[in-house]
Amino acid sequence: MSEQNTLKHLQTVTDSLEAGTTVQIRYLLNGALPAQDVARLLESSPPKERKLLWELIEDKNEGEVLQYLSEDIGVQFMKDMDTERLIAVSEHFESDDLADLLQHLPETIVKEVLASMTAQDRMRVEALLSYSEDSAGGLMNTDTITIRPNITLDIVFRYLRRHATLPDMTDSLLVVSRSDRLLGTLPLTKLLVSDVDLTVRDIMETECTVITAETPANEVAQLFEKMDLVSAPVIDSNTQKLLGRITIDDVVDVIRDEAEHSMLSMAGLDDDEDTFSPILKTTRRRAVWLGINLVTAFIASYVIGLFQDTLDQVVALAILMPIVASMGGIAGSQVLTLVIRGIALNQIGATNTRWLLNRELIVGLINGLLWATVIAALTALWFDNIKIAYIIAGAIIINLLFAATTGTLLPILLKKLGIDPALAGSVILTTVTDVVGFLSFLGLATIFLI
User: Fold this and answer.
1) Rounded Cα–Cα distance for residues 178 and 379 (Å)
2) Given CA atoms 190, 191, 193, 198 in this order, what sign does their dihedral have?
């Protein structure tokens, strides 16, 4: 459903709710729209309307809609369900998606849902729950088709016909030993064009991309992008036994989540931020970073206060002061964003950090000289004071060099300390460029004017 259609249906729902009629809404939610479009409609609705819409969805359709909802919203609905209803909707989920949601539910409910499953399904979900949701083990699906290397392709074809349907995104069959150690893969494209009398061993590919269960999700996404994969087997790093497989649809979710995380973290927001989350919840989440920003603002104000006598004597300094801080902030943000991106793509390490820092210092110096000249000329014309022009030019150059240094080294340092650079980097950078900007500008003014 396009964005325009989403808004159109949202308006229809709003009009119907205001008119007190639900017939058309029930029709949209229970058949007229695909489950993924119903999920988008729920996500695009404020909390009160969202709750009303959810109550209008028939029980038989809830599970299908839930699997398309964002994790935060899906968990909210599941927490309000009784155990019997929760067990019913869980039947619609793939094992990996169900495991992701169960991790956010109370342990007693999780145990009851697991107890309701068949032994095979329970083992699959429990295996997934043992891994972090941000790892290959948490991403993988245990629904795989495995074959032995010594059977003929004719037997493989008969085996596949008995399955009736293949798991989604199946582009190859996984070849395993009797102890379930992964031996290789058999691409369906090879299977379809090969002689049925050949054995699997004759045409299987032993050189294939294999992922260990502990591999971080972002590294999995990079591997899929680099190798143009549709699916990849996941193995135990110790035993080499096959555990499951990861498919491209799961990787797309990782890439989208990473992009949302980076974008929201730069503003100090949680990456599971719901556009229409309740007022108190939103307020609580944002208050933390507003408080941190207040502390940094007081630090910058304290630095300004140190030069109160200088400001009292030269009013022009107060007028020009924000320019220095602003130029440093923008320059630093450009470098910070570039380095955070490089870290996310695993492009930055000990071998190239020095080169990158030198590059950014040279760029900062060139830009500093360029814009310092422009700002100094405008200042001289504005205030008819050549000393102030020289002072602001010097402060601009100093701040841009500090911005380049901080923007380059700060995210690398935060990463080593285990702190998310996207979440904390911008706040620290702003403080540094503000403090250095004010300190250099007012300090130079105190030395050469007073």
Assistant:
1) 80
2) positive
